[in-house]
Amino acid sequence: MMIWDGVSEFVAVAETESFTKAGQRLLLSTAQISRQISRLEQRLDTQLFYRTTRRVSLTEEGAIYYRHCRQVLNGLEDAERALSSLKHSPQGLIKLTAPVAYGEKYILPLVNDFLLRYPNVEVNIQLTNTQINLIEEGMDLAIRIGKLADSSFIAKRISQRTNYVCASPAYLTQYGQPHTLSELSNHNCLIGNHDYWRFIENKQIRHIKVNGNLRCNTGHGLRDAAIKGLGIAQLPNYYIEHDIATGDLVPILSQYQEPLEGVWAMYPENRHLSPKVKTLIGFLAEQLP
């Protein structure tokens, strides 16, 4: 018996969480998929799935086996793509991850446009602010923002962002507008994940500790609080561009605004860049503001 028997079927069931959907993906009957999985479990002497009438899910052993099988299949797919012409229309599955807010505002709409242009592509998107392990999770691509840690990944800059310090006109009328960084200590600052804000002064990056009566780990919540006049916030441009344009928020301390940060497309160094992923990266770089 070949060691590969049942592996493709196993990966398809793990990713679709359905014997029926796995059969549709592989153009096999549900019965064939079920037989192959049963034979694989017998050969491994391990239960790979929990089965109910409503759902199929991986056991702990199945999750470990899936991660290894996915890497092996990725390698085989890369080998086949390396022999294919780059002129072929992109097709197949792309798994990518992106930060939640940036992903919702920019990446998801553009991926939808990409799918309209390339209907033979399938995209699986995971929005999370946790920097997951691309290799272990079988991701083809990650969108990351800001300074990157040293790694074995390849990064391509596809856009940029900046942070604004802003407040509502009502807040500034009532409490006054700070003109220096030291004046922030006299104001109610709306705090995100960190209790310090980054600025640039005399060409040097400065981290200023701030205090306030609201701490929130979502930019949407901080934006709403700032618009309602609760205090001053430091937020990425993609949260508040519209509010600044309409005058609901006023940018302040612009002379200390930190430099533009990169938005990056990252992928594993040891993975052959497939036409579909290469095309998607180019599309994002072209369309992102």
Tell me the major beta sheet. 5 strands, mixed
Query: CATH top level of the largest domain?
Result: Alpha Beta
The CATH homologous superfamily of the largest domain is called Periplasmic binding protein-like II
The name of the CATH topology of the largest domain is D-Maltodextrin-Binding Protein, domain 2
Number of helical regions: 9
Terminal-residue CA separation: 53 Å
- For the largest sheet, list the strands in their spatial order: 4-3-5-13-6
Question: What are the segments in which pLDDT stays under 50 over at least 5 consecutive residues?
Answer: none
Q: Write the element-wise H/E pattern from the N-terminal end onward.
A: HHHEEHEHEEEEHEEEHEHEEH
Binned, the helix content reads 25-40%
Question: What is the alpha-carbon Rg in Å?
Answer: 24 Å
Number of domains: 3
Give structural notes.
By secondary structure, this protein is α/β, with parallel strands linked by helices. It has three domains: 7-72, Arc Repressor Mutant, subunit A (Orthogonal Bundle), CATH 1.10.10.10; 92-160 and 262-287, D-Maltodextrin-Binding Protein, domain 2, CATH 3.40.190.10; 163-259, 3-Layer(aba) Sandwich (D-Maltodextrin-Binding Protein, domain 2). It is 39% helix and 24% strand. It contains nine helices and 13 strands. The chain has helices at 7-16, 19-26, 30-44, 60-82, 100-117, 169-175, 219-227, 237-246, 275-287, and strands at 49-51, 56-58, 92-98, 121-127, 141-145, 153-161, 163-167, 189-190, 196-201, 204-209, 232-236, 250-252, 261-268. A hairpin with a 2-residue loop joins strand 9 (196-201) and strand 10. The mean pLDDT is 87.
